[in-house]
């Protein structure tokens, strides 16, 4: 008997249309591979969508894909992730569940979790992931004893980063201790941190993260290139990580130090020669020797390329050139000058404008309540604008 473990699909997560479509295509390919592998069931450990209320077209695409698994008698079990979760408790997962396409295995009542039993007799349960780690209290209150005593092949699904498994680049991210999870499960299907991990832990069983089904940001595209999921063969006690590669990712890093915008453009054109139908990530860092960052004509360069998608990161690209602004006079004189320059097409005169600025700079007096302070400012503003009669009529 085999089952699949997916997580962090983030369908619809990209703003770029081409990459948003790829998140859907990766989900479709994952389900198709599960069908070809003849898995008994599929686990999705949170964040099927990138938001609790996705676009209707995304829902249709996902529903059609899940229906293919349903038609092959392959059940899909889920828990909500931090992106699926909604404060109202209503998400599109509820719609998919009512349509019979998935089953939410998080059945929590009075600090007790129920098991969902698959047709293969595997017992599945789990806890959702919520934004800002608000599910931690549920873990602390959870009655673990009954879960740990349950017999049979058991799977616990969770959507959280574990302290004991944190990679170095996630040291400052809040996480939970492994000891919050109930013991004595055969498999722990994790989601949330976007890295790949699968190891046995004494007293727990195999704890696994399959990584994202498709990279969900610039850095992940650079580092991971592709996404994937696990297929676990219970009979043979083996697992394999399936890589989904629909488009190749070509990453470019350019050191801009001591270079001109023209030299950056020339290097870009040279390194973008063989990018047909590929995803291209371009990261440019450093301080230009001359010119401004806006002098680099990205639009013209990219328009000549036949890549599938090109995205760039220039957050750490700087210029030596700064526009020098000479400021003379007192603060009041500078304010008056700016007001004169900007009041040409206004009905306000310079005196009224100055009075309004003075009003907005006032502070609460000793013993004055917030309500009294706000009331005083409103009255003084009405008087300054000569709107007393209008205010009285409105009242």
What key attributes describe this structure?
globular; 6-stranded mixed sheet; 18 strands; Purple Acid Phosphatase, chain A, domain 2; alpha/beta; 395 residues; 12 helices
Written account of the structure:
31% of the residues lie in helices and 22% in strands. It has 395 residues and is of the alpha/beta class. It has a six-stranded mixed sheet. The chain is globular, with a radius of gyration of 29 Å. The termini are far apart.
Task: Outline the secondary-structure elements.
Layout: E1 2-6, H1 17-36, E2 41-45, H2 56-71, E3 75-79, H3 92-98, E4 103-104, E5 108-109, E6 112-113, E7 116-117, E8 123-126, H4 136-141, H5 144-149, E9 154-159, E10 187-191, E11 196-201, E12 205-210, H6 218-224, E13 227-233, E14 238-244, E15 249-255, H7 261-271, E16 279-287, H8 298-303, E17 309-313, E18 317-318, H9 331-342, H10 350-360, H11 370-384, H12 388-394
Parallel strand pairs: 1-2, 2-3, 3-4, 8-9, 9-10, 10-12, 15-16, 16-17, 16-18
Antiparallel strand pairs: 1-13, 5-6, 7-8, 11-12, 13-14
Helix pairs in contact: 1-2, 10-11
Radius of gyration: 29 Å
Strand content: 15-25%
CATH class of the largest domain: Alpha Beta
Give helix and strand order, one letter per element, not per position. EHEHEHEEEEEHHEEEEHEEEHEHEEHHHH
Biggest sheet character = 6 strands, mixed
Provide the low-confidence segments as ranges: none
Total individual domains: 3
Q: Count the beta strands.
A: 18
For the biggest β-sheet, the strand order reads 4-3-2-1-13-14
Total DSSP helices: 12
Oligomeric assembly: single chain
Q: Could you say which overall geometry the principal axes of the C-alpha atoms support?
A: globular
Query: What percentage of residues falls in helices of 4 or more residues?
Result: 25-40%
> SS-based structural class?
alpha/beta
Q: Please tell me the overall pLDDT.
A: 87
User: How far is the first residue's CA from the last residue's CA?
Assistant: 76 Å
The CATH architecture category of the largest domain equals: 4-Layer Sandwich
């Amino acid at each position: 008997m085999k089952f699949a473990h997916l997580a962090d699909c983030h369908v619809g997560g990209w703003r770029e249309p081409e990459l948003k479509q790829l998140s859907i295509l990766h989900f479709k390919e994952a389900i198709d591979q599960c069908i070809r592998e003849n898995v008994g069931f599929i686990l999705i450990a949170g964040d099927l969508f990138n938001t609790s209320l996705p676009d209707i077209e995304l829902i249709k695409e996902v529903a059609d894909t899940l229906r293919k698994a349903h038609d092959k008698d392959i059940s899909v079990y889920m828990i909500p992730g931090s992106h699926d979760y909604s404060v109202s408790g209503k998400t599109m997962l509820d719609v998919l569940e009512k349509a019979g396409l998935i089953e939410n295995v998080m059945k929590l009542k009075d600090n007790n979790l129920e098991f969902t039993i698959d047709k293969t007799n595997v017992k599945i349960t789990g806890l959702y992931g919520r934004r800002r780690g608000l599910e931690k209290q549920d873990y602390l209150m959870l009655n673990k004893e009954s879960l740990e005593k349950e017999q049979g092949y058991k799977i616990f699904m969770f959507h959280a980063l574990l302290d004991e498994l944190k990679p170095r680049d996630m040291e400052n991210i809040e996480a939970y201790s492994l000891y919050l999870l109930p013991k004595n499960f055969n498999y722990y299907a994790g989601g949330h941190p976007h890295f790949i991990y699968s190891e046995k832990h004494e007293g727990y069983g195999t704890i696994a993260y399959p990584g994202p089904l498709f990279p969900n940001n610039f850095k992940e595209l650079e580092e991971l290139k592709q996404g994937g999921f696990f297929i676990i063969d219970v009979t043979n006690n083996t697992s394999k990580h399936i890589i989904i590669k629909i488009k190749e990712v070509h990453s470019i890093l350019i050191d801009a130090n001591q270079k001109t915008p023209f030299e950056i453009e020339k290097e870009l054109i040279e390194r973008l020669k063989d990018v047909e139908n590929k995803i291209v990530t371009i990261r440019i860092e450093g301080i230009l020797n001359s010119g401004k960052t806006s002098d680099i004509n990205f639009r013209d360069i990219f328009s000549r390329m036949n890549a599938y998608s090109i995205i760039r990161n220039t957050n750490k690209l700087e210029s030596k050139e700064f526009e020098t602004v000479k400021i003379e006079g007192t603060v009041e004189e500078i304010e008056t000058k700016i007001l004169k320059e900007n009041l040409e097409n206004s009905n306000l005169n310079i005196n009224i404008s100055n009075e309004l600025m003075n009003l907005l700079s006032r502070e609460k007096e000793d013993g004055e309540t917030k309500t009294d302070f706000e009331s005083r400012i409103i009255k003084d503003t009405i008087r300054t604008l000569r709107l007393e009669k209008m205010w009285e009529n409105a009242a």
